[in-house]
Here is the input.
Amino acid sequence: MLAFLKKNKAFFIPYFIFLLTGGITLVLWSKTEIHLFINQFHCPAADVFFSAWTWLGLGAMIIPVALVLAFVRFRYLLISVLGFLISGGINNLLKQIFHSPRPLSVFNDMHQSLYLVPNVDVYSDYSFPSGHTATGFAMFCLLALYTKNNFLKVLYFIIAFLIAYSRMYLSEHFLKDVYAASFVGVGTALLTYYWVMNGRFFNKFADRLDKPLIPLSKSKK
Here is the structure.
């Protein structure tokens, strides 16, 4: 596992830095203090950017990702779909268990106002953990594992991190919600990747799995 993480350090080093700094922040300050600090930094350009960027964490994003992977390697497509389904299932189960109020509900009870981005529907419950963040980290962690390019690995982490930040910027989630969701996403990605890449059942079909589901061109006879 250490060799595997070292091979993908361009993604996991910034992720571990996120875990370390986020964990220290959660220990030192309350979720409301952290959220009020984040909420004070806003501008029209950021409103537009994060309102759009947050859509990358939607479950529907698995469709274009799957379509691209279908031309690359069927095993990658299978890993991504299974990872998305398992990550979403775990995340939704945790939401039902904790039934945690979202920032808008919490601050309304405190009679504390928040800056809310115009034209964004802000929800009031099922805050923990963040579904968009879990999906984003699962999807882009897997994409990082599929590539050997270190620049792309770093880029995929940045994309996932900005999805997480967008959920806080839009006051849809607290830091603890996106922090825990990143565990769900990355953990699911790693377990699914290892399972499908190394499982005996899947390797019985290696000849088919390791080819594109949709070949770009037909081989000439």
